[in-house]
User: Fold these one by one.
Assistant:
Number 1:
Amino acid sequence: MAIQAPRGTKDVLPTESYRWQYLEEKMRKAAALAGYREVRTPVFEHTELFARGVGDTTDIVQKEMYTFTDKGNRSITLKPEGTAGAVRSFLESNLYADALPCKMYYLNAPIFRYEAPQSGRLREHHQFGLECFGAQNATVDAELIMLAYHLLDELGVRNLSVRINSIGCPNCRPTYHGALKDYLVSRLDGLCEDCKNRYERNPLRVLDCKKPGCRAQVADAPSMLDYLCEECRAHFEELQACLKAENIPFVVDSRIVRGLDYYTKTVFELVTETAGGNLTVCGGGRYDHLVSQLGGPDLPAVGFGMGIERVLMLLDGEGIQIPKPAQYEVFVTYMKDCHADAFRLVQALRRQGIRADMDHCSRSLKAQFKYANKVGALWAATIGEDEAKAGTVRMKNMQNGEEQTVPQDQAWETIRNMRKEAE
């Protein structure tokens, strides 16, 4: 049997890559409008980065990381999320010494999670993420939520809702942990083994468990919102005021904690209703202590990640057709003795920024036209013996069949004029 792609991975074929490029263009534009610049971090990092940053009580670190020992006997992990790598890059490059806040984004970044593949969730998937370092005001939290909301709305994602919560800070969270443990202590027998371990090490993680039995046990658990310190409460109120002022529809959901230990204060998710239930398409929050936790200065930070495969899946579900560009604007067809003239014309057209190609397989003229039609060329440019002698080319509109003969050195200008007329 032929070698196949590993389970939970998927090829992006030339016939569908234009859809990714369309999304990437929209995402880059949205990031640039808010002053975010691109960062590209390695696909793998030292395992310690994720153990310290993501948290060793999370499912990601405990169960889902692709970790291996390299030939230098170092523990290496394929990155299971984008933020930790961005923070490491920010610190290693001393970007904190530049003007702050520092805004960066990553796009089409591969993320690896070892989990059961399912609809919209692959073992290798790709994310669009934004990170902002050095800004403590809730206006930045709101900015990110709004950027994600408007982007998805512009793309055509419907039934979209914003859900926000605050999970406090190191000042107020210990009190909540105590209240949560008091609530859970009589319910330990109903928790899974993982949550029994989380109860001792990080009870907040129990709220993130997806198992029905555990979810039932925490249905009436106390809310972190009732234990916020004055600073966290004021921050959360500022966030809500910003979203209201810009007419962003949101709900406060005290059960959102996100699956990563580094979050503080704001956490949020953008959720859409699908036939199969609610689907989280974007999630993020504030991580004010991760930079210092990884050895840097005490700097606030906030960010989000958005799954590109999920966005494409949602657009498919909405029946939204992403415009498919023509592979070639011009396909040069030719009689067998005129291949040199055809080659020169193709190169001249490309120098003028026109997508062009010619037959490279010694097909007959009829077969060349058939191929040009199959690949969706907008125009065919034919050079026969008469055209070669006269230095002309016969242009044919492949949509309506109209033809005209023009000098070869003016073919590019003719095509540009026809392009404008078609627009």
Number 2:
Amino acid sequence: MNYTETLAYLDGLGKFGIHLGMERIEALLKELGNPEQKVRTIHVTGTNGKGSVTSMITNILLVSGLKVGKFTSPHLVRYNERIEVDGKEISDEDFALVVTAVRRAVENVMVKGTDQPTQFEVLTAAAFLHFALQKLDYAVIEVGLGGLWDSTNVITPVVSVITNVSLDHTDRCGKTVEEIAMQKAGIIKDGIPVVTAAEGEALGPIQAMSLFKQAPLYIYGKAFTGQEVSSSMDGQTFTLSAGDYHSNYDVKLPGAHQILNTAVAVVAAKLASKQDSRINEMALHQGVAFTKWPGRLERISQKPDVILDGAHNPAGADVLRAALDKYYSGKKICFIFGMMGDKDISQVITTLFRKEDTVYTVRADEGARAAEPEALAEQIGPQAKVMHDLTTAYKTALAEVCEDGLVCVCGSLYLAGTFKKMLLGL
């Protein structure tokens, strides 16, 4: 297949939806020669923050002079974003090549009786195949959904990371924080160290699984902590403390939650360094300092500031609102807001909006899952105004806040991606 044909094939797989389970991905990878076993990996899951942590760990390894791959999801604009080597997206040609190989493997395993693999399983297999062909030192792998039954959970990493656990994907991962934590804890492997910032009800299942697997567990707030020194939208400095270790780290990512995420990433990399002396102290500092992460408190322009943030669940909405209160206190804030209909819309709205805010509701994307802007506006109340065109919503918001305020586009990573595409076309 060429690149265009590859995109059409992947889009066609979308109709098969999400089906958790390991049978399809295991059969597919076996057909491909088990490429996932040919690269050392670090595995990252969590309700929020896993993308940032994945990128930070990747950058630490890159600064160490290693050849490193990264697999993340979803993409904002192009599928290629999901598969990176040495900080660069996979080329159109290589993407078409590996997906074509995976498609042939799909056809072979289906002849043998395996069910149709999902789009995410095909992309996972393509990533592992590309990483093996590139002969990487490491690949940092972000879980797609949950952990235990996620298609990435075929690896035995050098470190496992569970950033945090809160309510999200309750239709597939469980109705309570404890049930979701059990799914996340499914990535814990025998004897492999685990780093987490989970707390409260989520900690019990993670501690139990770590004990069962005899996996050393490093908990934020107990084994290590991060303390803010200074913070702004341009970045922040914090002190990481772990036992007798105390060191200041600079990060470009704003928000108190990114101090926690950075601490988790650094500790995970330090654990990997116990097996690989090439990962050094300088790389820890430089790697996180270089990290940027799109779609989360991402400021894309100034005067007025325009921020993109996925904020697709209550925990994400909470950290976004905390950041806005911290960095934009007293400023006029105008939201462009769209969500998927299967998310906890009511709780996100309650957490995110203040009575003085203006909210323009839009569709997050053109898919069937997107909530209608009229339904969103009805839940928000009189401060909400329905917009059926994203460009019009953006221009109206810019005019309302003038140079001194803030336009915040939020509620879904799909909306962030749609907005970026729109900007590229403006």
Number 3:
Amino acid sequence: MRNQIIVAVALLVSSFSFSQKSELKLAEKAIKSENYADAKTAISAADGLIGAADAKTKAKYYFLKGKAYYANGKGTAEDVKVAISSFEEVEKIEGGSGKYSTYVTEMKQAMLTSFVDNASSAYQAKQYDAAAVKFEQAYRMSKKDTVYLYFAAVSAVTSKDYDSSLEYYKELRELGYKGIETEYKAKNKATGEIESFDNKDVMTFSVQAGTHENPQTTKSKSKSSEIIKNIALIYVNQGKNEEAIAAMQAARKENPGDVNLVLNEANVQLKMGNREEFKKLMMEATQMDPGNATLQYNLGVISADAGDTAAAKKYYERAIQLNPEYADAYNNLAVLILSTEQDIISEMNNLGSSSADNKRYDELKAERLEIYNEAAPYLEKTLKLQPKNIDAARTLMQIYSAVDNMPRFKEMKALVEQLEAGQ
């Protein structure tokens, strides 16, 4: 009796093995003819039997499953996840050095190249949702390249897919991603502009060739503050204000000397309507780094957004005092001054035709010209520091027309036309 049972079981195992191989052959044949739907069907038929298979058969099964679900790049996002997972199983089974692992290495490299190329193309075409998917797939394929997960987060948040971007940013935080990179830059002798290079060798060659000078090798800033800020802002967008503040405060405990985190929390507090807490944090940031021109400029931007024109003007002036070449500070100061004319224009438009109204109109017109004359020097300085700033040139052209300075108007008009032609 025992011999009969043993024979029966042996026959059953043999039947399973035959079924596995039969289904895998069908899958392999379908893949070769690019009939991926049939290949997936055959793979699914073998799913329940693969547990008892030997290592070689399992490796082949997962390899074919990966190819079937990837479908030569035509698989859905969910199918691609299955494909990546399947290829990882092949490497686990064979230890990364077997027959199918060699094929998998080639497949993964081709897939990675495809994901990155498609992600970059989608991003440049402003198809940010598609770019996010492809960048995430690139990261899952090559987890050592965490920068792809960062690009996925940036793409997702740009496409307003806040749920996905939050998950990506949180994963980056868990990974301890800093995003610090070595940057290679040199000055182009012909244009006078600073240009970036992919690596040190290209930069060195350009300097030796005589096209560039003043080579510089620097480290980029950590992206930790940006990541935690975006996590908090996503929470704010989702109405989860407490989570937003908790995220900021946790980051500040990790980096107590990071003034940017203080500014980010202040920004969140402002978005939540907590103006007193906002002011408190702003003062804290100023005390932490009073000689930082960029900080003073950022304080000016935030104050302007908060509607505190006087404070914004003070911060912009302080930024200029610390860095007399701060073009953006000059520009924003001019914009701030010009913004005050809106109330004047509104009042002028609402005046009647009485003698009193006409008198008031002339007074307001004079005030408006004073505003133009006050803003013009800051725009002139902006244009001197940024000769291609067409917005500054256009605004100056309008100002000189309004104050009846025709020589300067003609100069600005010619400059605007020149800049427009070069765009």
